[in-house]
Amino acid sequence: MKNFFIDPVAIPCIIIYNRTDNIMSEKRSCIEMSILTDISEALQKGRAKIVSQLVTQALDEGMSPEVILNEGLLAGMNVVGEKFQKNEVFVPEVLIAARAMNAGTAIIKPRLAEEGVEPLGKVCIGTVEGDLHDIGKNLVKMMLEGKGIEVIDLGTDVSAEKFVSTAIAEGCGVICCSALLTTTMNVMKSVVEKANEMGVRDRVKIMVGGAPVTQSFCDAIGADAYTSDAASAAIKAAEFLAAAKA
Ligand code: B1M
């Protein structure tokens, strides 16, 4: 009788290879799975240089940039987002993971454009007029990008008019407003009013957040969604954009 050698590394590959759920739309070889997992893990550890090398290697081996984005980079960033929501990782880890994400996307962006891969949609984001706090806003931006959303960053001290006119000019499906001061959060109400005034309220969702902002404030000013953290903001924006596309 022949001896059988079962490679323990191959077992998970075989299982994954046979999965037919939503995540794995196509069957992948073990080698492809392995490099995608390596990209995701290097991104979670914030290893920007390794992410760049692996993404380049995956492209050289003929993998599609869309697969690398969805099953390597975005998969890794989703894990970071989930851990951030559960307070398992904190702002510095998210920042370095986002830097690694940017290193990877910079390499595949031109290839995605060549292949006509569309981003999920466009969002403009900013900290409201009179407010210069941008750490939370930048985190939201990174999480949005981590969901494959194109983000126009308007920076800080952004007027209601600027939010809405940018959304119209750039075709943004969502406006994201951040405020850290009780004295500036009312600008968010002006954003809602401006969108009404400019006749685009039914075309653009308005999301609000930041330390002093609450669900009841969001309801009172007639905004579309409040989320308490950056990862939930990205999930909500992705839902709005997907619903608008459907
Ligand atoms: Co300022 N500051 N600050 N500050 N500052 C606060 C906010 C304050 C609470 C400090 C305090 O008194 N305890 C207080 C506000 C009081 C109030 O209004 N209730 C305050 C004040 C008063 C001021 C000044 C007026 C001080 C002065 O000059 N007298 C001044 C205002 C300047 C201005 O904006 N015009 C001022 C200035 C500054 C610095 C420039 C020194 C600096 C900002 C640097 C920068 O951002 N580049 C600063 C900082 C750092 C803070 C604290 C210490 C930290 C804020 C922060 O970045 N947190 C803050 C005290 C504190 O919070 N402990 C304070 C980390 C960040 C990750 O959290 O932004 O809340 P946060 O984002 C979270 C969520 O809120 C959410 O996601 C993130 C987490 O996932 N989120 C969203 C944010 N935006 C979102 C949007 C969304 C969804 C979720 O959807 C669209």
Top keywords for this entry?
5-stranded parallel beta sheet, 56% helix, alpha/beta, binds CO-5-methoxybenzimidazolylcobamide, 10 helices, disordered N terminus, globular, 246 residues
Task: Walk me through this protein's architecture.
This protein is of the alpha/beta class. It is 56% helix and 9% strand. The chain contains 10 helices and 5 strands; from the N terminus they run αααααβαβαβαβαβα. Strands 2-1-3-4-5 form a 5-stranded parallel β-sheet, sandwiched between helices. The model is unreliable at 1-25 (pLDDT under 50). Bound molecules: CO-5-methoxybenzimidazolylcobamide (B1M).
How is the topology of this model organized?
Elements: H1 10-17, H2 30-44, H3 48-60, H4 65-85, H5 91-114, E1 122-127, H6 135-146, E2 150-153, H7 160-170, E3 174-178, H8 187-197, E4 205-209, H9 215-221, E5 225-226, H10 230-245
Parallel strand pairs: 1-2, 1-3, 3-4, 4-5
The chain binds CO-5-methoxybenzimidazolylcobamide.
CO-5-methoxybenzimidazolylcobamide is lined by residues 91, 130-137, 139-140, 176-178, 180-183, 207-212, 227, 229-230, 233.
